Amino acid sequence: MEWILYIVATLFVLIGLACLVLVVLQLPGGWIMFGIAVVIELIDTWYLPDDSPWTFSLWVLVVGLVLLCIGELIEFLGSLLGAKRGGASRAGSWGALLGGVIGALALAAPMTIIPGIGTIFGALLGAIVGSFLGAVLGEMGVTRNTMRGSMKPAVWAAIGRILGSTGKVAVTVVLWVLLSVAAFWP
Question: Which of 34, 100, 130, 133 is the most exposed place for a label (fewest CB within 10 A)?
Fold first, then answer.
């Protein structure tokens, strides 16, 4: 029944690749991928040969969990620190963070009219524009800053969001490679 190991590993690699797309869409694809790995590990005694005690060893799962946390931290701090770098107030920083999430969700669905890359493009554009607008609204609404005074924090919030999202995707690619290799060589 060793062939089942390779079928499960191949399916995991393909599903993991789909989870990477979810991360680009600003959705929790890395966490879904990790959850699937944990489920596979819990049921792998049904199909693994007797000489292979696990698909994903404990250290692989711990490293994967640490990578996920690092990716989340990078993304979270991207907009926040970007806005702070531009001189944003606390309201502007939080506006950038919330605006990025809302923007990604708001633009992902309408962009599905573009076949293939529409949703990805919409989520990325929405996250960037949302961070920018969130920072502007936070600066103007709470601190009563002018439009001109809100531009610098907003631009830096958008740059931070781009860098944070890129960093999270890169960390999730490392996670995918780690888990994919472990799936084929238990």
Answer: 133
Q: What is the pTM of this model?
A: 0.78
Q: Decide: 96 and 161 in contact? Cβ < 8 Å.
A: yes
Task: Kindly report the number of other CB atoms within 10 A of residue 127's CB atom.
Answer: 30
What SS3 state is found at 163? Answer: helix
> How far apart (Å, rounded) are the C-alpha atoms in residues 71 and 166?
10
**Calpha distance 151→177 (Å, rounded):** 39
d(CA 131, CA 109): 18
CA dihedral (66, 161, 97, 157) positive or negative: positive
Contact 111, 122 (CB under 8 A): yes
- Whether the CB-CB separation of 10 and 55 falls below 8 Å is answered with no
